[in-house]
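Project standup — Tuesday

K.O.: blocked on the structure for the chain from last sprint. Re-posting the sequence here as requested.
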Amino acid sequence: MKTIVVIPARYNSSRFSGKPLVSIKGKPLIQHTLEKIEKCEKIDSIAVATDNELIYNFVKELKFKVFMTPKNCRSGTDRIAFTAVKFFKNYDIFINVQGDEPLIDSKLVDELSVMLKNNRSFGCITAAFGTNEENIIKNPNVVKVVFDKYGYALYFSRYAIPYNRDNIKTKYYKHIGVYGYKREFLLRLTKFKISCLEKAENLEQLRILENGEKIKIIISKHDSIGVDVPEDIIKVEKYL
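H.V.: unblocked you, prediction finished:
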């Protein structure tokens, strides 16, 4: 089974326009992400899917595969599905690493790929990191996830979930912006209509749950700081 990592990179983000090309420690954000993925050992190829010529030209200069996708793609997943149909017909596993994850763990990406290859019981997988830091739990830009005892997602939210009514000892899980899809699942997913929960939280993964599909969660040993707003650049630079 052939695996490809596709990084969707949209230029006109509503919260941070031009984000993929913003400089972090002297390198554009998208370059940091690509260099992390280059360290993966269990994937066969890497590509960027974008709707912007500036991003396209920059990635091409770096000698990575890059493809233009329509501006009307509803989400990063839809952008990846477009490349799957048009450019990557012989790939079985698609890993979606969001372009704003410059600290993504390459070993985690490898683990997602291997688990998808070795398990028939699910077609989608993502990751979470356990935390009790209040500034993370209460930050609406950081997505939280709860899951069942079998490791399947119950819900994702920008709110602190679960709601800790009686202030008991509770562990929270921060969602990490990486997904793995089997080809058939990916193409079926993009035929679903945008769901009510997806609209309310502005989280595309809720489209999967609202249509009765499962998302497997694996727990990462390492946190990953995503760049959602300009203030996050400071956090990433401190980490680097």
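K.O.: great, moving the ticket to review. The domain at 3-239 is CATH 3.90.550.10 (Spore Coat Polysaccharide Biosynthesis Protein SpsA; Chain A). Residues 147 and 153 are 4 Å apart (CA to CA).
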